[in-house]
Amino acid sequence: MSMEESKKLVAEKGLRHIAFIMDGNGRWARKRGLPREFGHKTGAATFKKVISYCYECGIKCVTVYAFSTENWKRSEREVTALMTLFSAYLDDAYSDLSKNNIRIIFLGDRARLPSLLVKKIESLEKKTEQGDKILNIALNYGSRDEILHAVNSLLKEGANEVSEEEFSKRLYTAASPDPDLVVRTAGEQRLSNFLLWQAAYSEFYYTDTLWPDMNDEELDRAFAAFGGRVRRYGAVVE
Ligand code: IPE
Ligand code: IPE
Ligand code: MG
Question: Is 58 helix (H, G, I), strand (E, B) or coil?
Fold first, then answer.
């Protein structure tokens, strides 16, 4: 498939929100005899290319899983390298985001993030607030943590019954529709605590490609696979 075909498919099949579990940076580096950090650095460059292709194809909302609530278990060296990469991205993301009218939103618990990083996050979110497309970056994100956060905030307000809609509005993803397609790279076929509530009826696409090697052709294949799916939502579709 070409970009033109992908564009057409995105519009016709109503692919509004795509979410990526960006996995395989460490394996990509190891294959080359490099430290894991190099995989993350290359992965960060891949992230920019991937999201830009998605928006070019007409997708309105892109979510990426950048750091999970479980990723703190990694070495201090790796965690620091990742935080440094996030910070560098925040420093130079504005011009691209504003040029393309993209609103950036960070999903996750900010309490454990370095305070300078949180300041940069808040400032970039504010500056891009008016964008008509969304980029969600899941950073110190865990779906169970998100759900508990929502439940606890409702309890504090004295709620004793809530609807699905009200509950969804308490999640970090309140501004986004549910993901239509979740893509995971590097051969793993699991959610790893990502969007448990939101992905109830998402389509899944798995590829063995390691995240730093992700490219437009692989994205075209993911879109094509999505185009072939029949979304029944529990009903009977003849
Ligand atoms: C994904 O790549 C990036 C993060 C989880 C931050 P990994 O670092 O998990 O790469 P592998 O799975 O070890 O290859
Ligand atoms: C999921 O990848 C988290 C991110 C992509 C940020 P992991 O590499 O942490 O997941 P597991 O440990 O293989 O399940
Ligand atoms: Mg991994």
Answer: coil
